[in-house]
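User: Small ask, check this?
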Amino acid sequence: MSSEVGNTKKKKYTRQELEGLDREELVNRILQLEAYNFQLKNTLQKHLTEVEGTPQKEERKRPFDFSKHTRRHVLLRFLYLGWDYQGLATQENTTKTIEYHMFAALAKACLIESRQTCNYHRCGRTDKGVSSFCQTISLDLRSKLSKEEIEKNVTEGELQYAKILNRLLPEDIKVLSWTPVPEDFSARFDCKNRMYKYFFPRGELNIKLMNEAAQYLLGTHDFRNFCKLDVKNGVVNYIRDVQFVQVHLRCADPLGNSAYDLCELTIKGKAFLWHQIRCIMGILILVGQGNEDPEIIKKLLNVEENPCKPQYNMAADLPLNLFECEFEDIKPEVQDPEALEIAVRCLQNAWGQHTVQAGMIRCMLNALEEGSLSSSKLCFQTDWLLQVGSTIVTPVSPNPWLTEVAIECWKKKLKTLREKSGGILCTEIYEEMAKKMEKTRSTHKMNVEKNVPKERQRRSSMGTLIKSNRLRMSPEKQETFLKLSILSLAAILSFATRLFSVLRFESVIHEFDPYFNYRTTKFLAEEGFYKFHNWFDDRAWYPLGRIIGGTIYPGLMVTSALLYHVAWLVNITIDIRNVCVFLAPLFSSLTTIVTYLLTKELRDSASGLVAAAMISIVPGYISRSVAGSYDNEGIAIFCMLLTYYMWIKAVKTGTILWSTLAALAYFYMVSSWGGYVFLINLIPLHVLTLICTGRFSHRIYVAYSTLYCVGTILSMQISFVGFQPVQSSEHMLALGVFGLCQLHAFIDYLRSRMTKDDFDMLFRAVLGATATITAIAGGALTLTGKISPWTGRFYSLLDPSYAKNHIPIIASVSEHQPTSWSSFYFDLQILVFLFPAGLYFCFSRLSDANIFLVLYGVTSIYFAGVMVRLMLVLAPVMCILSGIAVSAMLATYMRQVDANKNVDKKSKKFENNYVMKSEIATMFVCMMCFLLVSYTFHCTWVTSEAYSSPSIVLSARSHDGSRIIFDDFREAYYWLRMNTPEDARVMSWWDYGYQITAMANRTILVDNNTWNNTHISRVGQAMASSEDKAYEIMRELDVDYVLVIFGGLTGYSSDDINKFLWMVRIGGSTDRGSHIKEWDYYSPSGEFRVDKEGSPTLLNCLMYKMCYYRFGQVYTEGGKPPGYDRVRSAEIGNKDFELDVLEEAYTTEHWLVRIYKVKDLRNRGV
């Protein structure tokens, strides 16, 4: 029986054979297996003894209960010297790997239960001999904190991971720090950039040529000729992006021998291929040796001309170091000074040993070089990096053996998968493998076709020529071309859809304010900036006048004048009026591009394209940017989004460059529109939120400090702004947050220099003192008037009823009224419903940039609800959030339309076990397409019908559907210009002041600037008074003509009668108009009526008489009595009257504009 037991090489029994054995044979079989098992244990124990030294006595320990402890997902950063290791990743046949020792330490410290259960990811897999200063892994570690504390990212009181692990790790592997990260964070997939350094001696290498050659690597290329093909792991995409590369001197030789200089290659990118850097370095060394030209890099990057990797040697592994792994939006690192001290001590010891070795060898070299070899110059310092005399050998045609090897690897992989699955292979996996095998074959076939003789190419048909590689683009180039095409179409559409007004009504300026802007722009273009800045306009606000340069935002005028002069410089003869008309559509195209860039930074390029397409036609933005709408908002929205884009870039990078660019964009915004106050409060609110949520970092400090300092100094150069950024209450949030940033940075500095107890005591004292001093100083400056209070418009945003109760001049402006729910849908349509979905996707992937977008969306939707004018500010963020929502949802459901399509494991959010998921996804995609099409039709209709009609030229539809044009405004202004003296003074309500000065060139009393409430109130008193009292006011103001707008004949509802109550309220808001009471103009029943039931005060006031003079004899509608007002739907109550102090000078064709001349004083001698 002993012989049978010792026979360990007996064949393997099947189940049927075992069932056929008798009892004794089964016992012998069991004894045989036990003996074989004992033999294996002895062999393994002997192997472990040889590897790890003397075996330790087995200690029976109670298993650690991980269920009693919480876990947290962390990012561990550690360094290692990989010269004596077989690489980072664990291998089956050796224990000399970094991961083996790391997981051994983690398990011994009971920080993890097992590798399989700790959610482990590594940032970069370094090969044998490669070192790393910043290797990063993410995994779940045992924690001593509660779940609530972990969710709040508390780090105080946590286990000292670095200190614990450093005591258990070898001398050449040390943990530097750890950082708490979200549960779904992956050190591999969430790494933004990886930077490698390759150190090497200069020897006889030409560093300048090597650096010149390295610059060809910058950008996105196909690096298949610069790597080792990894077909076994299914790598078929060789496109990589190199963001930075440089070959430079690291450290000069102390003895002055340049051959012993230490140089380095620094290369940075998001990801790299297998052995990519060593292959690159191998070719660069050949360039440095003079064996190859620098252009060899450029040639090898052209995979169409060189489809197969040439034969050359890789550089050595020892000098390579993974030096930096960059992540975005993670918490500051938690560093243990004691653990860092251990790491420094180990590195210094290693440095000391190697320096002594290098110094000893250098002494030997000096003795040899100064002795018998002094006459000859020998430089072999770089021979070990690469074989001497190596060159690049490029194969003439592709090697089919490589393709066969790839296919064989796939077949072996398929066989392994079948065995692991028990013979049942998943259909999706099989199809995936088959597709990749087919792709490998097609790649080989394509490479062979590209190398056929030229004679066969000449005999090829035209169809083959079309398919040739010269007319074919790579998938990346196709994607870039598609993005550019979509973005260009969106920009063109943005310009074209705003031309309805020009096509229908000719090239004409719209609305009221644009006429003042046009007048000032024309003056600037003709007279120059110096005269423009010092221009005193005696045509406005008679008899006060107005200093134009100090009371406007000049950005719009300067932009138009600059474009005008540039056009003339390149011999494009264009009138300044046409520049003004088409400026808003031009900048809307630029806004479309900036929206794409901003959304791309916030989310991705797909969302950016959707957002750009949406903002190109959204009515909420078109309302202020159609052709002819020459107003500040036409360029201000572009400036605002440009500033936001620069700010997000500054937040992400933390560089002074982007912060300064953001400040310059902010300066352009300040020079263009008073709405910059919203921007300079939103950005500080963003920074304050980051501080409160614990996300404040050095990047935020640099970005905001630079933006505030540079932006504030630049904004104060605008005369109209002056010292407001440091004196007005609207800017105090920005100033306060700037001070808070300095305080936060100072506290962080103190925390790093003091013990915890001393710091806590000092922190409380400094915080209390700072708060007290700030409160006292702020109160004192406010009381003394150094800090001005909030303006009326700002109060109106916080309290919508404030303007109506206290400042009627602000409440009288229609664009300052609260927004109705129907206006939201009218101006935004489906964006209203996509807005919450966009917020959800921002919260699902919260970052510093997304927090800004959330704040922008929430604040703008509030302010847009308070003031309809601010719908303009809401429209861009609505488009951005809707673009994010549409892109994210379509990306999710489009993957499910094809049920057999494989989904990448990282992006796969749910299992493929839903019922009818393909049908549901198809239905959702169709529904989304329908909504987007309806959005397009709605926006086009609103733009055409509602926002493309200039207020200066009106239109209506007749009974037969034809269009009727009412050009009464220009008719009246032309009459004023041609039939009144140049110094004639015209009184009208302030709405028409800009148009009169621009088109009639006559002096007006008040205009749309509304800067002097007393002067406007005086005009309102004249309009609301009887003829006698109004005549006194008109003589006081030297009025020659009075102009009123009347729509009773045509049905034009925006006439002066409908605005009259605002004239009454504004007229009675000052002391001199206290006798004017609004209730005196209502009927006894409390109604505002123009018929016989109307108030006698109303029926006899100057405004009523000027509008209805001779109207009582006019028939306006069939079946209605004469004097029937079509707007008020009533027969006027006072028909037969004559004017005593005025005489009718001119009435336009459709009675829209009526002009009266003020009679001279009676000659008392008559």
Observations:
- The longest helix spans residues 337-370.
- The two ends are 157 Å apart (CA to CA).
